């Protein structure tokens, strides 16, 4: 029923992301939640910092002679503070409301979206592929809790060929970041777009032919890499079947040729030396450190000589002061992200070296969000003529990477 054909008779698909649309009231609720998150993460966060600087830190100093020296000490000092307790409870509730605000529209359109995804898997009009592995063991880091409080996490299937968590992620992340992104450069920006164009400008001779995105979820990183490197073949892996089905259907309807497969990044079925660029974003902080080490060793294996790997992650603990570390690590205690703080404590360059990358090729860099700058300003940054803004609400990204 949802199969469409072009005049030529060639199969094409309706856009899977066009189905779930909010009613008037749902849209109002989503706008409210996005703005509430903005207030919590900007105005209230600034006020909380002032409370810390003005009362909490001085009172610790008066008692002990020293300011809290790390994130844990700041957290201990802040936990009894009523402003922090109010802020933390607002933030937790806003996080739940993000997902809650999109559930109804996803539920209403679920049967149609599943049908489109099934059709995509059969006809793949853009020439991509979807390989699922029903026997794959879902890693505990994903299966044991709803990461960042998203109902169903990335893998749960409630009905046959389910895509619900893919749609919830797609719609929910728009609400999550909707109030916070600053756009000076419409249509540009976001992690993958910023990394891809940073690489393109800084290393004009680097032209990857095969690109792999680890923990690709619904494949949002793939189209920005395609626009920066139009000749590259795109691959995305994830452990969650519903997010992959959704991502594959979305890519196919957009005419993006991408190959999605359900695999654990700790042991991939790709051949040695088969990729020129391996990327990820918001991935490693959600898995345990021993898994991170196995995955980086796999990245080294699948990367071809001359290839590059680059990962966007939260700033390492060492790059930040005690207060900002406390602020960032909130997620580890209250947002079902138990590996978050442990990952941030690692030295990313050390992890790459341990995985087999030569020290002189490894590095850590902070880049600006491309949406927050004009094209000229972004190019000036990539050429080393300016600095990226400090890390805060999608203004810049920390990347770690290496070459083989
Ligand atoms: C926060 S999401 C990544 C978001 C995505 N990069 C984006 O920008 O939209 C983390 C993803 O990693 C996947 N994942 C977790 N552990 C994995 C593993 N061992 N192998 C492959 N994928 C994994 C999860 O299922 C989830 O989809």
Descriptive tags:
single chain; 404 residues; alpha/beta; Rossmann fold; 8-stranded mixed sheet; two-stranded antiparallel sheet; 15 helices; disordered N terminus; binds S-adenosylmethionine
Describe the protein's architecture and organization:
The chain has one domain: 3-Layer(aba) Sandwich (Rossmann fold). It has 15 helices and ten strands. With 404 residues, it is α/β, with parallel strands linked by helices. The chain is globular, with a radius of gyration of 22 Å. The chain has helices at residues 24-41, 43-64, 71-78, 82-123, 140-143, 164-178, 191-202, 222-228, 241-253, 289-302, 322-328, 330-334, 340-345, 348-354, 375-382, and strands at residues 4-5, 11-12, 129-131, 210-214, 233-238, 258-262, 275-281, 303-313, 363-368, 396-403. The model is unreliable at 1-5 (pLDDT under 50). The strands form two sheets. An eight-stranded mixed beta sheet has the order 3-6-5-4-7-8-10-9, sandwiched between helices. The protein binds S-adenosylmethionine (SAM). S-adenosylmethionine binds next to helix 5 and strand 5.
Give the SSE map.
Elements: E1 4-5, E2 11-12, H1 24-41, H2 43-64, H3 71-78, H4 82-123, E3 129-131, H5 140-143, H6 164-178, H7 191-202, E4 210-214, H8 222-228, E5 233-238, H9 241-253, E6 258-262, E7 275-281, H10 289-302, E8 303-313, H11 322-328, H12 330-334, H13 340-345, H14 348-354, E9 363-368, H15 375-382, E10 396-403
Parallel strand pairs: 3-6, 4-5, 4-7, 5-6, 7-8
Antiparallel strand pairs: 1-2, 8-10, 9-10
Bound molecules: S-adenosylmethionine.
